[in-house]
Amino acid sequence: MTPHSSPAVLPSAHSGSVVTALTAATSAAHVAVEHAQTVADQIFGLSVLSLRQQGYNDRFIADRLRARA
Question: Which domain of life does the UniProt lineage start with (predicted)?
Answer without folding.
Answer: Bacteria
